[in-house]
Specification:
The complex is a heterodimer of chains A (420) and B (431). Chain A is of the alpha+beta class and 420 residues long. Chain A has 16 helices and 11 strands. The chains are: A alpha+beta (420), B alpha+beta (431).
Chain lengths: 420, 431
């Protein structure tokens, strides 16, 4: 792997993989819903959409066609801490990806008419999400868990903000955050690093660095007792969520928390393209699903820049109450804080993660995702030493973090109460 | 640069086990991982109407206990090494898959053979899985996308197996007993017509030995199995139904007709027509019209489900309730254009370039290759299929695309399902 920073601040990460004649190019911007303030929630995601709406060299509707014509796939994604764009192409067509990304980093049009049409599209994306009770519950739970930090709102933003934002807002946001000194270019796959680096220099090197970047100052004040929210809505199925303030990816407690997450809710696939794995031997499955309280249960401990949430969710079986499912979940969380996990559970969590790493290394797109994502929330070294750090976790570490973080005073509990 | 290696007769090993099961193996030492997948001819088309969902229920109960292992032991064995094993039923086949580190291949093959050959269907688990099934049905009742898809099938395939839901209804979920599951298993699970695929970091000889050892002595049943379906009843008018779901924000639309089978000579023309209509780039012409030009929807695309039988060819979109009518008009506009005008040569070439050029991407991972091998075997496409594929695509003409659109997509006769909040427009809501 090769890591270089160009004169204009663009970080470049290159990893050759020659198992197949394909290559993946990712450009990551250090901007996401974390950078948004009230009034412009959802703007990072909308800006992402606008980067598909054309530049002078690739007019509206052109470059999705150009990439497809070359047999490639592409997409853009926005999350809490980042916005990213990728193209995965047959390796002999790879140059196209570099040209597109260098171009739209600075030349996107933000045409006023296109922007208005996209307003209804981003609203439609949000409305589609609103059809799902779990999404509505998550939005409320997050908003209750955070008073101040922008992690309190969803990446899709509040509908009122989507209705009222202006072209100026979007344009200024683009100008503020889309610059080489706020970006990471990642290439993985079948190429020669030296030649590719020279080409990246040629296409990106001349782009001037942007202005000084706005700093996210918001830091969440401590929570002084549990919070509870109830969402009422249509449907017949009840859903439970329970979230706890956790730590960022670079925190020393991050790895023990990942082991805890794996023991409680199962191993997580290291692929954003899906391909899930079962969690039937996990503690929570046995306590909630096997006992016929819930139809499914999940946990997640995301890797983020600022402290985010260690979360648990369950879908209730008909005839079960939120009280009893919440009590069963809580009993498991108390147990793991009271007794250390077994050596077998610890070994299993590490082996499971090792397997997930192996699976994800088959795909250049997955590797591109992980390298860029790691560099945003920590560093590629963090990714390289991930398994070693995980293997160094002890049962005592896990018990200690369970006690500290899975505390009632850090939690927000959400109930979705269906109204039929 | 990597050598272009489209899987073909030179590196796919095809072998018949002693009981007639077909094994296909391709080595790939890129990562220390391996994928197993396969199918048996046992699917939803074999269910009686009042037992809809039986094939799927049977499939999900396979992993609940065997003569050798309890449910807990299966889970601990598989998940303990970071592997996964899954079995699920489709219309014609029950498919299974497994994934593990290469060192654990013997283990997951043993588990897969165990669950497929020696399930015990513990009574306690029949009820546990039924509860999950009923929860899923309850969630479906309140999911606009799934309800639109369900009602579309009922409208497009009345009285035909494809008109049923693979997960049945609340009634069938309550009516199916353990004895139904056992007899479905006994009647439909046997190695005949079964296919096994292994792709990954294992020598082909070693993989074949393992397959022979785990599946080769599964005794063959007495007769071949019929997995065909009758042709769907003719659809000669607009059949339309709205599912009112108060409290929802967005409406989902599904519009389409019965299409064609994978082995139909029209398949490649239909594949191109579908790519032009609702796939290419950001969802083809539908994406351009409905999303880009009118900003009506976040998604609007088309899908061609050509399988063993004539699956549906349909368009689906999620839109604001106020835009349902305009979205349907735009969809019909594009269908009419595809039928009435030749696709311009450069536009057709774009879709051809996408379908042929994206082959290396589809074949990058073990799962991608395994999927391709299963398709080749299921539809008797030959081991050189992937090498012939570019020519098959390139040889389709614009006239053939137009003809296939005219034959299968009729703007005067289609099934249309809309699920969402009350549109409040009475009869004029939809034309």
């Amino acid at each position: 792997m090769k890591k270089v920073t160009l004169g204009n601040g663009l970080q470049v990460v290159l990893k050759e993989m020659h198992h197949a004649p394909v290559a993946s190019f990712w450009i990551w911007y250090r901007v996401g819903s974390r950078n948004e303030v009230p009034g412009i929630t959802g703007i990072s995601h909308w800006v992402e959409h606008m980067l598909f709406k054309g530049t002078p060299s690739f007019p509206q509707g052109e470059f999705d066609k150009v990439v497809a014509r070359e047999g490639g796939v592409f997409n853009g994604m926005t999350w809490l801490d980042w916005t990213t764009y990728f193209e995965t192409l047959p390796s002999d067509r790879f140059d196209l990806a570099l040209r597109i990304e260098a171009d739209r980093m600075v030349n996107s049009l933000f045409d006023a008419q296109e922007l208005e049409k996209e307003r209804t599209v981003v609203i439609s994306e949000r409305e589609g999400a609103e059809n799902f009770p779990e999404w509505l519950l998550e939005e409320e739970v997050q908003a209750a868990a955070y008073r101040l930090h922008p992690y309190r709102h969803q990446v899709l933003g509040w509908k009122q903000d989507l209705q009222h934002m202006t072209r100026d807002d979007l344009w200024q946001y683009y100008r503020a955050y889309y610059a080489p000194n706020n970006a990471i270019a990642v290439a993985t796959g079948d190429f020669q690093s030296d030649a590719l680096l020279a080409r990246i220099e040629e296409l990106f090197g001349a782009i001037p660095p942007g202005p000084e970047l706005p700093v996210v100052r918001a830091s969440e004040p401590p929570q002084r007792g549990e919070r509870r929210v109830v969402v009422e809505g249509e449907g017949q199925t009840a859903y439970l969520q329970m979230v706890f303030h956790a730590v960022p990816a670079t925190h020393p407690d991050y790895f023990p928390l990942v082991v805890l997450d794996t023991v409680l809710g199962g191993a997580k696939p290291m692929s954003f393209f899906g391909g899930g794995t079962s969690n039937r031997s996990s503690r929570l499955y046995k306590a909630l699903v096997d006992t016929e309280l819930a139809a499914d249960v999940d946990s997640s401990m995301p890797s983020t820049l600022d402290p985010f949430l260690f979360s648990f969710s369950a879908t209730l079986r008909p005839g079960r109450t939120l009280e009893e499912v919440e009590a069963a979940l809580w009993a498991e969380l108390e147990r793991v804080a009271q007794e250390p996990i077994t050596p077998e559970e610890l070994a299993k969590a590490i082996k499971q993660t090792r397997a997930q790493f192996a699976y994800s290394s088959e795909s250049v797109s997955n590797q591109g995702f992980w390298l860029g994502f790691s560099e945003i929330v920590a560093s590629t070294e963090w990714f390289d030493s991930y398994l070693d750090n995980l293997a160094a976790v002890t049962a005592e570490d896990v018990q200690r973090v369970a006690k500290e973080y899975l505390a009632k005073s850090r939690r927000t509990v959400g109930w979705y109460v269906p109204q039929g | 640069m990597a050598v272009q290696t489209v899987p073909g007769p030179q590196d796919i090993v095809r072998y018949e086990l002693s009981n007639g099961m077909v094994a296909l193996v391709r080595e790939n030492f890129t990562s220390p991982a391996v994928v197993v997948s396969g199918y048996l001819p046992a699917g939803g088309v074999a269910e009686p109407d009042d037992k809809a969902g039986l094939a799927g229920f049977t499939a999900s109960l396979l992993t609940r206990g065997t003569e050798k292992r309890s449910f807990e032991e299966i889970n601990e064995t598989v998940e303990g090494v970071g592997a996964s094993v899954d079995v699920s039923a489709g219309w014609h086949f029950t498919s299974f898959s497994g994934k593990s580190l290469a060192e654990d291949l013997p283990l997951i093959l043993d588990v897969l053979a165990d669950v497929l050959r020696r399930p015990t269907f513990p009574a306690e688990h029949v009820e546990k899985v039924r509860g999950q099934w009923l929860t899923d049905l309850q969630e479906r009742d309140h999911d606009t996308r799934r309800m639109a898809a369900l009602v579309f099938r009922e409208l497009a395939y009345p009285g035909h197996p494809y008109g049923r839901s693979l997960i049945g209804t609340h009634e069938t979920a309550r009516a199916i007993g353990r004895d139904d599951v056992v007899s479905f298993y006994q009647q439909h699970y046997s190695p005949q017509g079964g296919v096994l695929v292994v792709v990954g970091a294992v020598q082909a000889d070693r993989a074949l030995d393992l397959l022979q050892a785990t599946f080769g002595d599964w005794p063959a049943g007495s007769d071949g199995k019929d997995v065909t379906v009758p042709p769907p009843p003719p659809l000669e008018a607009i059949r339309h139904k709205e599912v009112v779901m108060p409290g929802k924000t967005q409406a989902d639309i599904v519009l389409g007709r019965p299409g064609l089978s994978r082995t139909d000579p029209d398949f490649y023309a239909a594949l191109l027509a579908n790519t032009v209509l609702g796939r290419f780039g950001m969802y083809g012409r539908l994406g351009t019209n409905v999303r880009e030009r009118h900003g009506l929807a976040y998604y609007c695309l088309s899908s061609l489900e050509a399988g063993q039988g004539p699956g549906p060819w349909y368009v689906f979109a999620g839109v604001n309730p106020a835009n349902v009518r305009r979205a349907i008009e735009s969809i019909l506009e594009e269908i009419i254009r595809l039928r009435e005008e030749l696709v311009p040569e450069d536009e057709l070439n774009d879709s051809k370039a996408f379908l042929t050029g994206s082959l290396p991407l589809r074949l990058e991972t073990n799962e991608g290759v395994a999927g391709a091998l299963l398709e080749m075997e299921r539809y008797a496409l030959g081991l050189d299929y992937l090498q012939r594929y570019p020519d098959l695509i390139r040889s389709v003409s614009a006239a053939e695309v137009q003809a296939v659109a005219a034959k299968y997509l009729d703007p005067q006769a289609y099934a249309l399902a809309v699920a969402g909040p009350d549109l409040g427009q009475g009869d004029e809501g939809m034309g």
